[in-house]
């Protein structure tokens, strides 16, 4: 684990490595950005560099501290995650006790607190008191999906480190370079933020099959209503329905969007790149406004499902509306 092993996030790396180079490390950092953007990996790389005995802008990987880190037995690193849905005050108190005990020895201590925005108010206030009286040898790394959701008084006592999703083209290139299927990678980069999250989607057992089902439904939904309904019954709402359905509507929306890209000659933006021949024969069956209407139907079905309408009912009603035009 080092800065070089974390993909992208050049701005975040610059902030942290400049602090290491200039010996101006803050007592607390807030890593803010969507899951899958390398926040935890960079937090670990930073912690490893902070604890490295050679005190450079990255971990050496060879000293005793680095070797302990790599083997998972570095006592100067503490990690804390939510207990259930939230981080509770007792967890913060235990963290403070552990750090107080370990601070008796020499050297820096680092703690990583994941999903910091889930802290209960008592837990956040307890951590705030800890941050208000920083000990020089303790560095806090807080990770949050949305740093603005963290208590303002805690935010004001941390160094903000932003994490942004990489550009889709960059992400696609990296996934393909690492051996992932190009057609699956093209879809995954529109469903998640960051390399790790996209790679996890690609590796899901049902993802490739779900993509194939979407292609079948996309072709059938406009002119072969009965066939589309049979496909939905046989392929969507039986085996592994929950896992498959999570990606099905977002992918179907991308399918309809591809028709607009094809009409506009934007082939580099097409997700279902292996279906160009079919698109050449059918993309002009509807106007761009017609395809936008199809996308709106898919979005409407997603909204209804989030409002607790039965997924099968929402999906079937969407298919009826698509058929009506």
TrEMBL record:
Keyword annotations: Nucleotidyltransferase, Transferase
Pfam families for the chain: DNA_pol3_delta2 (PF13177)
GO biological process: DNA-templated DNA replication
InterPro entries on file: DNA_pol_HolB, DNA_Rep/Repair_Clamp_Loader, P-loop_NTPase
Tagged with keyword Nucleotidyltransferase: yes
Transferase is among the record's keywords: yes
GO molecular function: 3'-5' exonuclease activity; DNA-directed DNA polymerase activity
E.C. code: 2.7.7.7
Name of the molecule in the record: DNA polymerase III subunit delta
Gene: holB
